[in-house]
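Let's practice the habit of predicting before peeking. Look at the sequence and jot down your guess about where helices and strands might fall. Then scroll down.
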Amino acid sequence: MRRLLLLGRPDCHLCEAFEQALREGPLPDGCVVDHACVDDRGEWRMRYGRRIPVLLDEDGRVLAEGVFDPAALSAGMRP
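Done guessing? Here is the structure:
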């Protein structure tokens, strides 16, 4: 199972739209998405605070940001 991390903020309309599109998928098989507030860690806030929503893979690589694109996500997750 591959764990992805969606960084966003409460009451962020872009984050809510991204999350809704992510739920509607399709996500690559075997993926689970965890959610976190970008402000929970100083490193996240500095690196991604102005770029949210940001979807990261298990290695911290940015898979998507701003607008969810299922095709780009699938292409970015290929081994």
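How did you do? Residues 13-24 form the longest helix (12 residues).
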